[in-house]
Amino acid sequence: MLALIDGNNFYVSCERIFRPDLRGLPVVVLSNNDGCAIARSDEAKALGIKMGAPWFKIQDLQEEAGLVALSANFELYGDISDRMMSLAAGLGHRQEIYSIDESFVDVTGIPGDLVERSRKIRARILQWTGIPSCIGMGPTKTLAKLANAIAKSAERKPGSYPAHHGQICHLGVQSPQELEDLLQATEVGEVWGVGRKIGAQLREGGIHTALDLQRMDPAAAKSGWSVVLEKTVRELNGVPCIAFDEAPRDKQQIASTRSFGHAVTELRDLEEAITEFVCRAAEKLRRQNSQAGQVLVFIRTSPFRKEAQYSKSAVFPLQAPSNDSSSLTEAALAVLHVIYKRGFKYAKAGVMLMDLQPLSRHQFTLDLEPDEPINNPNRIRLMHALDNVNGRYGRGTLNLASAGTAGEHRLWQMKQQRKTPGYTTRWEGLAEVR
DNA sequence: TCTGGGGTCCTAGGACCC
DNA sequence: TCTGGGGTCCTAGGACCC
Fold first, then answer.
1. What pairs with residue A168 in β-bridges?
2. Lowest-pLDDT range, A15-19, A71-75, A244-248?
3. Would you state the pLDDT for residue A327?
4. Cα separation of A165 and A155, whole Å?
5. Which of A60, A131, A138, A315 has the highest count of CB atoms within 10 angstroms of its CB?
6. How far is the C-alpha of A196 from the C-alpha of A341, rounded, in Å?
7. What is the distance between the alpha carbons of residues A419 and A19, in angstroms, rounded to a whole number?
8. If you ran DSSP here, which 8-state letter would residue A67 be given?
9. Is strand C less than 7 A from the beta carbon of A195?
10. Angle, helix A74-88 to helix A10-18, in steps of 10 degrees
């Protein structure tokens, strides 16, 4: 039996911990660059604000409805997430942290009333971190996710489900008839793994509810769509097909990409941005003790603007895998010089490190170059020092020269005009009590 | 004026091999 | 008239997730 614990409107709830004045108000958290809404309070949802709604299209609601918008403060959310996760882990014996606000917990064999136990954990999370959450339980991940969705709807949308499923919903203890009713009351698009496209195709084929999907022939799901949907069908029937992953696995690719605060036309500006992106990505790469075999760089104009469009990416296969910021930057800038075209207004760029492999693996080349910087102990120490300094004194304290200096005005720097302090992660962000 | 970022997995099709 | 069979590996693109 698996439980899925998930924070309600997580980013908004994090902000409300230190801004109790925001409770009861419509609040949204905006994506990087203050671009669009990526988290909404219940009150904001009630105003009809959709997930991903562009800020400039909803900002009138500030005046009209008292909407409050905040810039994303991921440092804060990450820290609150850690606290919530460690409390959620107490529900069972194994935990898989699935995203910043969700974790699966294996509650198989836990004695006693799981619903009661869940209520206690939920109450503890609320009291100790201030984050309201919902818990769903079922014999597979897909059913636990579904239970969680039911728990949320039963609380937020009265009448959608029987009220006693609010906050905690345990599908494992329902009678077959009750289970059928719950699945019948759930739209097929709510099912984990069914997105916009497949949802529309299913509805076209007469499959409208989770119950319809559960009763679908798995072979038909596979031949008509893919093995992914087949697994979903089986999971809805209580057959586990998606593994429980306790230990976070090494990433297979690491990306750093940004939309710019202002359109950028000059190569020099793009060089700065790309350098910074490589350094961010390389830092993550070193943190998981990996090295990259390939570097991808892309630049593109804004598809939303009516002007000349250009979008291009290219890959640089490294002669030997590396996690050295300057080697990777050198490769990335070489790619940039190839794909850059003058005369376009660039809106976004990014770097992806690919073909990742553990540091322990070393591929020897036939034509060893004598001045190969790879594995040079001094370079390794340098990267180590770089990470330590930036870890201690904050990101960007030490940078490669081609990243430019923060003092200069950087057109490409993203906009964040509504950011709350690092309440729990920075001394200067500590709240004062008077 | 203003539309996010970071991932995973699967599939189809091409290149290539014997 | 009639033009094999079986396999692997890689990549690009699509779909999904939060």
1. A135
2. A244-248
3. 94
4. 8
5. A138
6. 35
7. 12
8. -
9. yes
10. 100
- Bridge-based pairing of strands A37-40 and A2-7 is unpaired
| Coil vs helix vs strand at A260 | strand
Q: Which residue type is seen at A231?
A: K
DSSP string, A295-315: EEEEEEE-TTSSS---EEEEE
- Per the structure, the residues numbered 233 to 272 in protein chain A that have their CB within 7 angstroms of any atom of strand C are none
Note whether A4 and A122 are within 8 A (CB).
no
Pick the closest to residue A363 from A376, A374, A353 (CA basis): A374
Confidence band for A431, pLDDT divided at 50, 70 and 90: confident
Nucleotide nearest to A145 (CA to C1'): C17
The arrangement of strands across the sheet holding A311-322 comes to: A254-264, A346-358, A290-301, A311-322
A194 touches strand C (CB under 7 A): yes
- Residue A226, nucleotide of least CA–C1' distance: B10
Distance CA A21, CA A5 (A): 26
Residue nearest B4 (alpha carbon to C1'): A31
Cβ neighbours of residue A193 under 8 Å, at least 6 residues apart? Answer: A142, A228, A229, A231, A232
DSSP state of A172: G
Q: How far, in Å, CA of A190 to CA of A211, rounded?
A: 12
Kindly state the tokens that stand for A370: 């004598």
Q: Which position has the token pair 């923060």?
A: A406
Instruction: Count CA atoms closer than 13 A to A178's CA, side-chain side.
Output: 13
Instruction: Work out the angle between the directed axes of helices A141-156 and A227-236 (0-180°, nearest 10).
Output: 70
Distance CA A274, CA A335 (A): 10
What is the distance in angstroms measured between the alpha-carbon CA of A226 and the sugar C1' of C13? 15
Question: What pLDDT, on the 0 to 100 scale, is given for residue A362?
Answer: 61
Write the pLDDT tens digit of every residue in A273-285: 999 999 999 999 9
Say how many C-beta atoms besides its own lie within 10 A of residue A390's C-beta.
Answer: 16
- Cβ of A198 near strand C (distance < 7 A): yes
- Judge contact between A232 and A206, C-beta under 8 A: no
A382 CB-near residues (< 8 Å, 6+ apart)? none
Task: Report the length, in residues, of chain A.
Answer: 434
* Residue A348 CB lies within 7 Å of the nucleic strand B: yes
Look at residue A253 in the predicted model and tell me its pLDDT.
Answer: 96
Q: Which two tokens stand for residue A401?
A: 């020269």
